[in-house]
Design a protein that fits this description.
By secondary structure, this protein is an alpha+beta fold. Helices cover 28% and strands 21% of the residues. Helix 3 crosses helix 6.
Length: 359
């Protein structure tokens, strides 16, 4: 390590405090460097390995956030996401065997390295994390009508039908969401597909999504929706998981033109008196895990559809474009969203928030 002194690891070995030699004044810069040795776990997971394939999600150290609420060192609870990161710039150089393909966050260029090896350099600006994968993937690149480059990678065992469906929906959704919420800013998007990722399902990262692929389709549209909600418009996923999951699910249902006219009644009773769309991951982890999907994904997305019925389609679309624009590469809160919605509403939304348990 250079540029600081490390203290012992905390938060189940996921947080490392580094003391600088002297205080850094506001607006000044410094540099810290350190070596990290990563042993990829032998598990089919967003951070794990499966045969000859490696998936490196949530693997690189990131700066923690300290804001008006204090330091954010919340633990990963083992399901969903508990991350809260700011947008930053990455330049990552990967030196790997020539036979391996290495999808990664950002725009990637490649050059020959030492005999039998390739050096891939990925540059990403305004992203909250950096993820990559490595393996003997098959690949195909297409450009959407809207000009976004999609790089598809899949394992030899992945069904061709699943790859075809995912790629078709990816092309359609990245362009549709760009028109609906704001143009996709990263130029290219990598889709990493496998039919053997069902242990954890699919997962989004900036400019890269891991997909458990089935012939009838996967969660590709939902994960691409996350490029806007948590990627472009950030949120504290531990404190307010609905701000990315409910919104990505809402976007997915819009894309597939699903009938949501009776969704609130269709979900029946709340799973408990304490359940609410705006509950934190701490709540779901402490005895309410069974409520997570029902409340955050289904009731949360339905609340947004209900809000659209209150505001009207054009007003909802305009409000969301403004909300994304106002928090572009920043961090939004529930209060921010409620203010944006109220500004677009013809009357007080207080009863709406109460009914939908958006506190």
């Amino acid at each position: 390590m250079a540029g600081g002194t490390a203290r012992p690891l905390t938060v189940d070995c996921t947080a490392l405090r580094i003391d600088l030699p002297e205080p850094l004044r506001y607006g000044a810069r410094t540099s810290i460097s350190f070596d990290v040795s990563i042993t990829v776990p032998d598990r089919v997971h967003r951070f794990g390995k499966d045969g000859a394939h490696r998936y490196l999600g949530n693997a690189l150290p990131l700066l923690s956030v300290r804001d008006a609420q204090g330091e954010h060192l919340d633990p990963d609870v083992g399901f969903g996401e508990s991350f809260h990161t700011l947008a930053g710039d990455f330049r990552v150089v990967l030196d790997h065997p020539r036979a391996l393909r290495v999808p990664a966050t950002g725009t990637t260029t490649r050059r020959a390295g030492s005999p039998g090896r390739t050096v891939s350099t990925s540059v990403a600006r305004g992203v909250r994390d950096f993820a990559w994968a490595a393996g003997p993937f098959r690949s195909k690149t297409v450009t959407t009508p809207g000009g976004v480059r999609l790089n598809a990678y899949w394992t030899a065992a992945t069904s061709p039908e699943g790859v075809s469906v995912d790629l078709k929906d990816a092309v359609g959704s990245v362009d549709e969401f760009g028109k609906r919420f704001g143009r996709y800013p990263y130029g290219e998007l990598d889709l990493v597909m496998s039919d053997n990722l069902d242990d954890f399902g699919s997962m989004e990262f900036p400019g890269l999504v891991l997909l458990w692929t089935e012939p009838e389709g996967s969660a590709v549209v939902h994960e691409i929706g996350h490029q806007w909600f948590y990627g472009i418009v950030g949120n504290d996923q531990f404190a307010s998981p609905w701000l990315d999951e409910s919104f990505a699910q809402y976007a997915t249902e819009l894309y597939y033109r699903q009938d949501t006219s009776t969704c609130w009644d269709d979900h029946g009773e709340w799973p408990s008196d304490s359940a609410a769309v705006t509950r934190s991951m701490a709540y779901f982890a402490e005895g309410h895990r069974s409520e997570y999907g029902q409340v955050v994904y289904r009731r949360g997305s339905c609340a947004l559809h209900d809000l659209e019925r209150v505001l009207g389609g054009p007003a909802m679309a305009g409000m969301l474009r403004g909300y994304v624009r106002d928090h572009w590469l920043g961090v939004a809160t529930t209060a921010d969203f409620k203010r944006a919605a109220q500004a677009a509403a013809p009357h007080d939304l207080g009863p709406f928030w109460t009914e939908h348990r958006i506190h």
